[in-house]
Design a protein that fits this description.
Elements: H1 6-14, H2 18-34, H3 37-66
Length: 72
């Protein structure tokens, strides 16, 4: 099972323009399309795990910052 480096794509897309982000997304789609069928399920599982982890991190950061404006 290959390991996919989604963080590399995520970091590149953080400050990308819409056009650059579209190109990055196309790279991911092309990578997925080139995979053998048996690796596509692993790709999807690793991508979902990465996205859940990143969303949880962003939510935690947001909750921490939002808490700064509330009185103790």
């Amino acid at each position: 099972m290959p390991e996919f480096d989604f963080k590399r794509f995520h970091i590149r897309s953080m400050n990308a323009t819409d056009e650059e982000r579209a190109a990055i997304n196309q790279e991911l789609k092309d990578m997925y399309a080139a995979l053998p069928e048996e690796d596509k399920a692993d790709f999807n599982a690793q991508l979902q795990k990465f996205l859940v982890k990143e969303v949880a991190r962003v939510k935690s950061d947001y909750d921490s910052i939002r808490g700064l404006n509330n009185p103790n």
